[in-house]
Amino acid sequence: MAQSAAPATAVPAITPISLKAIAPWAVFFGILMLVLLYFVGAEQGATAVISGEGVHEWVHDGRHLLGFPCH
């Protein structure tokens, strides 16, 4: 009387992810984070890669949030 209506299923084995599979993604995201950090923290004034105030205006609030001075 206490039988389940659903059939019993086997739990699949968990396979570990190799370092070779993670390394390219870690490098990609590391470079991406460095580029974003540059644009938020240093893209202004003499070190500017892009001229004008466009990048500064886009990242202004993030700059203050992360503690970078910009005024």
Automatic annotation (TrEMBL):
- Identify one Pfam family in the record: CbtB
| Protein name from the UniProt record | Cobalt transporter
Keywords recorded for this protein, A-Z: Membrane, Transmembrane, Transmembrane helix
Q: Which residues cross the membrane?
A: 22-41
The source organism is: Streptomyces gelaticus
